[in-house]
Amino acid sequence: MSKPRFFITDVFTALRYGGNPLATFIDCAALADAEMQKIAGEINFSETTFITSRKPRDGGYDVRIFTPKAEVEFAGHPTLGTAHIIRNKLRLTAANEITLNLRAGKIPVTFSESALVWMRQMPPTFGKQLEAATLAHMLGLNPADIDTRFPIEEVSTGFPTLVVPVKNLDALKRAGINREAYFALVRDAWAKLILVFSRDTYAAGQHLSVRVFADFYGVAEDAATGSANGCLAAYLSRHQVLGTAAVDVLAGQGYEMGRPSTLALRANGSEVLVGGSVVDVAEGLWG
Questions:
Q1: Active site includes 256?
Q2: Which of 91, 132, 165, 254 could form a disulfide with 147 if both were Cys (CB 3.0 to 4.6 A apart)?
Q3: What does each C-alpha distance from 77 to 13, 23, 106, 201, 218 come to in angstroms?
């Protein structure tokens, strides 16, 4: 039996060792589900992907995504990083647009001349709105830190996320997870990812700052979360947080983790796009 081959990329960064790292495995059709999960746990990145066939099926490439604890239907940086491997490393296609067949459905990915890779996410759906005091307690913040001009709201563009607005970068930096309160909140909730954002920024040229917590999936904090930022883009559009339904901004994430990331967000109503750069880091054989 041939050994699976793997690639490591950094996504949502133009520099190695920034952004969010991704491991992508190929030639792994013989791997059982349990083995994929064990590999993802051993790698211990926020996600690991498996391209289960080099041949397209129904117009797309079959890909599975695992966190260290569970398989998920959709995730952002794994989508961009895996599409990069399919097109630019494996050379399975030279097309500027390819489709990944994920559990959430078909996700188109476009390669632009600016070197950004863009994914079109699912049309947004919106869930419950929660109280500011509840989230302030869970995040270790004061209720006054929450920006109550806008709701705390569940959103999904493929991966349900609870979006929490805070007033400034200081509040964002102080945010953390009270695990007891977090697990009590998400146990029966639709959205188990928590995205906290501020309109203050980490770096020049950015428009928003973001942190994402996902302890339910074995990821205490994520460095760059394309799925959750897609939910944020839909939220910004729906509530016209920036003064218009048309969203075209850059968000910074991962700074507290020493992995600065930049995510490009576009949205207008039901259309949601998230883009970023992908950097090659390493490749090899597993086992």
A1: no
A2: 165
A3: 11, 11, 16, 21, 16
